[in-house]
Amino acid sequence: xxxxxxxxxxxxxxxxxxxxxxxxxxxxxxxxxxxxxxxxxxxxxxxxxxxxxxxxxxxxxxxxxxxxxxxxxxxxxxxxxxxxxxxxxxxxxxxxxxxxxxxxxxxxxxxxxxxxxxxxxxxxxxxxxxxxxxxxxxxxxxxxxxxxxxxxxxxxxxxxxxxxxxxxxxxxxxxxxxxxxxxxxxxxxxxxxxxxxxxxxxxxxxxxxxxxxxxxxxxxxxxxxxxx
Length: 228
Hints:
There is one protein chain. By secondary structure, the chain is an alpha/beta fold. It has two domains: 7-129, NAD(P)-binding Rossmann-like Domain (Rossmann fold); 133-227, N-(1-d-carboxylethyl)-l-norvaline Dehydrogenase, domain 2. The protein has helices at 16-23, 49-59, 82-85, 109-120, 131-161, 183-191, 196-212, 216-227, and strands at residues 7-12, 27-30, 42-46, 68-71, 90-98, 101-106, 125-128. It has a seven-stranded mixed β-sheet with strand order 2-1-3-4-5-6-7, with helices on both faces. Helix 4 (109-120) links the parallel strand 6 (101-106) and strand 7. The longest helix has 31 residues, at 131-161. The termini are far apart. The mean pLDDT is 89.
């Protein structure tokens, strides 16, 4: 049985989760003020990881019991939504991690069931994870994205130097479909890495991506971390 159609208040950027909700017929409303949240059955926070805590605090006075509150960052779990959960919200952290796979962390079994229904309606696969597991996943996904960018750049360089027929097509390299991390999310993901070898590889990849994309901020961050 399809889930009831909802008015969904939206904070932040468009992403694949929004596209799924729109395809299911939910009414998406851009919210510029937390006070407007009272008119929505569900709220989605799709900002950078660094902004989520502030938005949750601003929403707290306006939450109604039974409202659904979702954030879409892989680097944070459901605990960041505690301030709204204590007011009766159903808290969920739902992050796209590639293809039709979504990592889901919820406050309770009812919230878990609702999250699974929302994803199931769009033929998506829900993968329950704890807050701690999400923290581990975030840097690995960010690293996979950066390495994929470097592989594409290396592939383009080969095509310029060699006969195109001698170079595998880019499709053969595979595709990583998780949404790209913002720079602030890359920094946050790095902070959770404890393995020294992985920290070094992560920083080197970030610096090189910054160089290739002429992103001075990311390149300088990578250089500074390499010198620590």
